[in-house]
Design goal:
The termini are far apart. With 555 residues, the protein is mainly alpha-helical. Among the domains are: 243 residues, no CATH class; 125 residues, Rossmann fold, CATH 3.40.50.
């Protein structure tokens, strides 16, 4: 059933526009509320509404809320649910500090801060040294770098958790504005947190998703109210293009929403209402200014067209883990199956009309998430408002049933738990030591290698961050190593069919790899190689003198 609030609003707005996930009122279809978020879910008890003073339209002094009223509002059940969302973000994301790309991002920012310029070619490897390269995420590198300089690994951890918290508070806001049921919005946002966990950690793409949420909030307000601060969008895209390549996703979604409002459509359960002339003018001006703002960057048009280059990097997309498709046999894939089943059952039992923009954006996000697991975070952001409307049958919040003392205890308990389990610097450092060859790097610093070192892909960024003088074979910048053919050679080494020609090609004298790799096993049992250092995580192998002479002859 539609809520009483929705009924009142339906009388005033027979065709309510609800942002990118809108629902047109119809006799057999649910009508969600579009109240401002500050008044959502508030069913005040009879006699508790403040009466306006006849002289100035303000509540009389006797009716203004006292400290008890302010206290009850600050610890309401809605506040408890909000803290639950933030606590869930902390549970899912804390301690994930050792992202392999973090280190070369820190290295890039360090170079920018000390040289006041951006690198235009590769400086970190011996395999692609001097090859043209642009750091298209330079603006996202700086926050992590300054957090590290101020507070070490703990600063990086705090920053990533803060950005994630803001993202999902924004998702909660979007969901609540769509369904008018805060409980449904919290449940949908919680699901989104689990779905988006694939991208948790100190990653530059988090800033891109934060920009995306802000974009959706502005467009949702424009759709609901007929006006919004569209002037924010051009500077938003200017920041976005200098922060992360995900700006292209934002532009696609912006274009879908703008274009869907240019036509009138009624097709089955899908509707589209055109923008008014004034709305169309403002939206197209904002869109055009946003496109122009993309070219305000240190690399010009090359940066704007860089996402197209990724489409041709088939090798990186095929072999880098986050670019694989969803595996429905693992837990992440089963989460996606649950989502699809919920939406299917909802479409059968509680049919509703879809707005064209909502449907196209959802299908775009669904395709992206199923095709590449790194975009499950995108799907989480887009699907949460849709899922919230599916769950709006949950009983609404009733203020008169609040228990301030119990709510206060729950809030304090969550704050105390987060403080207790907050990762300390020693624990974060231990996490890094468990994943990166810190001791092996110390050995190489004490015994400088006399030739090139072939390193493990996931270690490249950390090795060069810890010792800039030690040039790596490969690191997480798959774009430059794919275009130069280095990534292809590295993958061939992992196949261990015939590694010798590739090792000769790069005149490799050392190999630094984990113990568990088949490539390591082959070299450890090859008389042409000897182990010069080994610990619980890594092994450093060196060519024997005889094989070095043989390699020179073969070359």
């Amino acid at each position: 059933m539609a809520s009483p609030t929705a009924g009142i609003l339906a009388h005033k707005l027979p065709e309510a526009r609800l942002g990118i996930v809108s629902v047109h009122a119809r006799d057999d279809v649910e009508r969600p509320s579009i109240q401002p978020i500050g008044t959502l879910e508030e069913s005040l008890p009879l006699g508790s509404h403040a009466q306006a003073d006849e002289s100035n339209g303000q509540p009389s002094p006797a009716e203004r809320p006292d400290w008890r009223g302010r206290y009850r509002a600050s610890v309401s059940f809605l506040v408890v649910l909000t803290f639950l969302v933030l606590a869930l973000v902390f549970i899912m994301a804390h301690g994930k500090i050792a992202d392999p790309d973090l280190w070369w991002h820190l290295h890039n920012a360090d170079y920018l801060v000390h040289h006041h310029s951006l690198p235009r070619s590769d400086m970190y490897s011996f395999t692609a040294a001097g090859h043209p390269w642009m750091n298209y995420e330079w603006l996202a590198d700086l926050p992590y770098y300054f957090a590290w300089r101020a507070f070490g690994l703990g600063g990086i951890e705090a920053l990533s958790l803060a950005v994630l918290g803001l993202i999902f508070l924004g998702v909660l806001h979007l969901s609540c504005r769509e369904c008018g049921n805060y409980k449904a919005a919290v449940l949908a946002t919680s699901y989104a947190i689990f779905l988006g966990a694939v991208s948790f950690g100190p990653r530059t793409i988090l800033f891109g998703y934060a920009y995306l949420v802000l974009l959706l909030i502005v467009l949702q307000r424009f759709r609901q109210n007929g006006h919004a601060p569209l002037w924010l969008l051009p500077p938003l895209f200017c920041l976005w293009v200098n922060t992360h390549g995900s700006w292209s996703i934002g532009m696609i979604i912006f274009s879908i929403i703008a274009a869907a409002g240019l036509v009138r459509l009624k097709w089955g359960m899908v509707d589209s209402e055109p923008w008014t002339p004034g709305q169309r003018k403002n939206l197209l001006l904002a869109w055009g200014a946003s496109v122009a703002a993309l070219f305000v960057n240190p690399f010009g048009a090359r940066l704007v067209f860089s996402p197209l280059e990724l489409a041709f990097q088939k090798l990186a997309i095929k072999h880098v883990e986050e670019w694989v498709s969803v595996d429905f046999h693992d837990a992440r894939g089963k989460f996606v199956i649950v989502l699809l089943l919920v939406l299917l059952v909802s479409a059968i039992l509680r049919p509703r009309r879809w707005v064209l923009a909502e449907l196209v954006v959802f299908l775009f996000a669904l395709y992206s998430g199923l095709t590449y697991i790194r975009f499950l975070f995108l799907l989480a952001i887009v699907v949460a408002p849709v899922l919230a409307k599916t769950l709006d049958f949950l009983p609404p919040y009733r203020r008169e049933l609040d228990t301030p003392v119990l709510n206060s205890f729950a809030i304090l308990l969550m704050i105390a738990a987060v403080a207790f389990y907050w990762p300390r610097e020693a624990r974060l450092q231990k996490s890094v030591e468990d994943q990166y060859p810190i001791q092996a790097i110390s050995y190489l610093q004490a015994h400088p290698p006399s030739g090139p070192v072939v390193n493990y892909y996931l270690w490249g960024g950390y090795i060069n961050w810890k010792d800039p003088n030690l040039k790596v074979f490969v690191d997480g910048r798959s774009d430059i190593f794919d275009s130069t053919g280095v990534l292809k050679d590295y993958l061939a080494l992992l196949q261990v069919d015939d590694p010798e020609p590739i090792l000769d090609k790069y005149q490799a004298r050392y190999v630094l790899f984990p113990h568990h790799e088949p490539f390591t096993y082959v070299l450890e049992h090859d008389p042409k190689w000897k182990t010069v250092y080994s610990d619980r995580l890594s092994v450093l192998l060196e060519r024997t003198e005889d094989d070095r002479r043989g390699a020179q002859l073969r070359k």
